[in-house]
Amino acid sequence: MLDFKIEEEKCIECALCAQDCPVRIIKMDPKPIILPNKEKNCLQCQHCLAICPTGALSILGKKPDDSVLVKGEIPKAQTLSRLIKTRRSIRKYKQEEIEPELIQELMDTASYAPTGHNDNAVLLSLIDNKSDLEKFREQVYVSIKKAKETGSLEKQYEHLSVFQKVWESSKTDIIFRDAPHLLIASAPSVDSSPEADCLITLSYFELLANTHGIGTLWNGLVKWAINDIDPNLRVLIGIPESHTIGYVLLFGKPDVKYTRSIQSDGLKINRIQLEK
After folding, report:
1. Where residue 260 falls among pLDDT bands split at 50, 70, 90?
2. Where is the signal peptide, in residue numbers (predicted)?
3. I want to staple 64 with a disulfide (CB 3.0 to 4.6 A). Which of 28, 55, 94, 150 is the partner?
4. What per-residue confidence (pLDDT) applies to 81?
5. 140 and 236: one domain?
C-alpha cells in the first residue's frame, strides 16, 4: 500500500502532482487519486509530496510537515564553485574523533543522493572510532602480507605489499594515512546501478563534510584489499556478499592547511553536434 492521502480542505486541485508523476499514475477525480491497480507502478520518488504547494498530499507514510522547505538560504553558485575548486585530498589527519552527531548528520544528508530506479539501497558501513579502525587496519595489512607469502597477491597489487612492509618496519601508514574514520558504500549487485549509486552518495557526503572543515580521501587501496585480496575482510566488517562495493572514503579533521586551489588543466570535452 502506498498510503496515498489527500487533505481535502488543503487541496486546491492544481493537478501539479498528477502532471509531475514520472509514471503518470495519479488521476484527478476531482482530487488526486491513485487507482489500486496502478500502485505497483509507483517509483516511490515522492515527487508528488515535494511538488504539492499547499502540503495537502502524503504518501508512503511521509508527511509534508516533516519535509525540508525549498525556500530559504541556498549556497550561491560562486560559493559552491569555490568549495569544489579548493577541495583537496587529505592525507594528514589530526588524531581527534569527529562528534557522532555530526557524522550522523553527514550520513543522513547523503541519504538524499539520487539512485538508479530510485532503489535507495546504498549501505554505508562506518568505522566511527580510532580503536576499531586500528584493528581493521591491522587486519588489512595482515591480509596483504599473507597474500604475498602464499603467492595469491596479483601483480597489479604488488605495490600494496610494499606499503605493508613499510607499515611493518616503521608503522608509517600509507594505505589508511592514520585517518580516524572510514566509510564504505555498497549496494545490492542486482540493483540497476549499484556502483554509481555508491559514488554519488559518497560525493554528497564529501561535499557536506568539507563545509564542516572535515577532510576526505577517496581510497581505492582499501577497496582492492576487501574485493580482491581477502574476501574475509568483507565478512569481518559486515558487508553482504550480495553487495557491490562502490568505494571507500577516509575522513577526519585535517592536519594540513592549503592556501589556494590547484590549477586544473580542464576536462576533455566531446561537443556533440548532429547533422540536421
Report:
1. very high
2. none
3. 55
4. 96
5. yes
